[in-house]
Amino acid sequence: MKQELIQCALSHGRRFVRYGKPAGYIPELASKDPSKLGIAVYNMEGTLSTAGDCEEKFTMQSISKVIALILALEQNGFENVFSKVGMEPTGDAFNSTVRLDHLTNNKPFNPMINAGAIAVTSTIRGATLEERKEACLDCARRLTGDPALGVDYEVFLSEANTGYKNRAIIYLMRSNGIIEGNCEEHLELYFLLCSLACSCKDLAFFAATLATVLAQTLAAGLCAVYLRLRFPELMFRRADMVLDLPLLKRTAHFSFVTALHMCSLYIGKLLVQGTVNSLGEDAIIAFTAATRVEGFANSFGDSGSAAMAVFVGQNTGAGEDRRVRDGFFQGQKLLLSFGVFMSLVMILGAEPCLRLVLPAGNESGLGPAMDYLRLVACFYLFNFLGSGLAGYFRGRGRVNVPVIGATGHISLRVVLSFLLAPLVGLPAVALATGLGWIGVVAFWSVLVARDLRRLS
After folding, report:
1. Residue 132 to residues 10, 124, 419, Cα–Cα distance (Å)
2. CATH says 59-198 is which class?
3. What is the pLDDT of residue 5?
4. Is the dihedral of CA 111, 116, 118, 121 positive or negative?
5. Three-state SS across 346-363?
6. What is the DSSP letter of 150?
7. Beta partners for 40?
8. Residue 236, Cβ density class (10 Å: 0-12 exposed, 13-18 middle, ≥19 buried)
9. 3-state secondary structure of 237
10. Cα–chain-centroid distance for residue 228?
């Protein structure tokens, strides 16, 4: 908001200051300076604009009723709080006692009149009065964004010593069964809330907080109404919430197998890393850099695997066996092309790719990293073909097959790396990785061929 507009509003408001006067029913308030005037506004981006006496402290009085309601709802829930107070308007003054003997269901009309606010305050929980006070202060500080927010004890004592009408209200509600517990303690907490000393900045933050929450709640509600009217098939109904034990069993099985798959992969990677660590610092740097380049290349295979799983799963569910078979072969051709392309990139572009990920100035690790990357790249078409095969089995619901294959691959990789690395160094890990891919692709290909024959 432009500062000129804020200043203009402040100047306009100052014309009317002389017509007002502080509340006289609280003696300490009557002595406050009525000429103080300030403005603080938060815009949609959270920027604060201020003018006038925006740092001047004053007591919240009835604004604190909103804080009391928020805290009571947070502690007790909607039903418990509104069993003590209603949600209806009233045509009487905020501190009126006229209708307290004729209340509907013995409840004050709403939480924003004194009777309703006192009833709400009585529900704020705490082991002691001091604990309840601290809860109120903590809530107010969070809502205003001011950790130093305190109490104007002069106003507090003035209210406590002269709050006869509020005492009449609380004791009348006590006789009607609305108020429970120590009335004087409830009143002291209510007076403390009214005496919270804040500034325009504090209230601007509070208002922005409420506006944000209410706007988001309204937006969510309107979205729900729109979906219900326009797309009723997307709404959940009680009939949709059923416990399907076979589906639950299959979901649990899928989750367990997936977790087992990930565990075997990461344990195998740790064991391979242990073998690499025994080769020295240069080998560790080279292996780390090369596997980063590998990770980028693998992302294309992983995406292909996920796409294959979705395609095969959807068409299997629809009974389109021919589309499953044709789509699988087309997908494998595409993955094979990607595998050959990524192999060429890693073989021909090994040096520039590795320089991007190697520590600056490190030349000793470049040679071993290039040897590893170029050798493992020779097997990358098997990596991509394996990704497609794994996606096929997941789409067919046979999630145990990828786990068996991956476990076999990682086991072979670990054993061969351990045996050959001391003899030929880092290329042994690349060779073990490639041979593992060949083995798992051969195993999966046999199973896929059998499955595709059944689809024919």
Report:
1. 38, 7, 69
2. alpha beta
3. 87
4. negative
5. HHHCHHHHHHHHCCCCCC
6. E
7. 50
8. exposed
9. coil
10. 25
Answer whether residue 439 shows pLDDT above 80.
yes
Three-state SS string across 263-300, please?
A: HHHHHHHHHHHHHHHCCCHHHHHHHHHHHHHHHHHHHH
> For residue 54, what is the DSSP state?
T
Strand, coil or helix: what is 101?
helix
Give the pLDDT confidence of 363-414 residue by residue, as tens digits.
788 888 899 999 999 998 999 999 999 999 989 988 888 888 888 888 888 9
What's the CA gap between 334 and 308, in Å, rounded?
11
CB 300 within 8 A of CB 342: yes
Helix ranges, 19-62 (H):
27-30
Q: How far apart are CA 261 and CA 403, in angstroms?
A: 5
CA-based nearest residue to 188, from 216, 167, 211, 219: 167
Beta bridge partners of 190: none
Task: Kindly give the interhelix angle for 366-377 and 281-317, rounded to the nearest 10 degrees.
Answer: 30
Q: Is the C-alpha dihedral spanning 213, 218, 221, 227 positive or negative?
A: negative
- For 437, phi then psi, to 5°, come to -65, -45
* Integer angstrom CA distances of residue 438 from 109, 127, 169, 428: 78, 69, 85, 15
Type of residue numbered 324: V
Q: What letter does residue 9 receive in the DSSP assignment?
A: H
C-alpha dist (Å) from residue 225 to 219, 221, 232: 10, 6, 10
Distance CA 250, CA 421 (A): 42
Q: Please, what is the angle between helix 129-144 and helix 64-76, to 10°?
A: 110
Residues paired with residue 51 on neighbouring β-strands, in sequence order: 39
For residue 456, is pLDDT > 90? no
Residue 198, strand partner residues: 58
Task: Provide the 8-state DSSP code for 30.
Answer: H
Where exactly are the structural domains of the chain?
A: 3-52, 59-198, 245-455
> CA dist 442 to 107, 387, 436, 447, 449, Å?
78, 13, 10, 9, 11
Beta bridge pairs of residue 38: 52
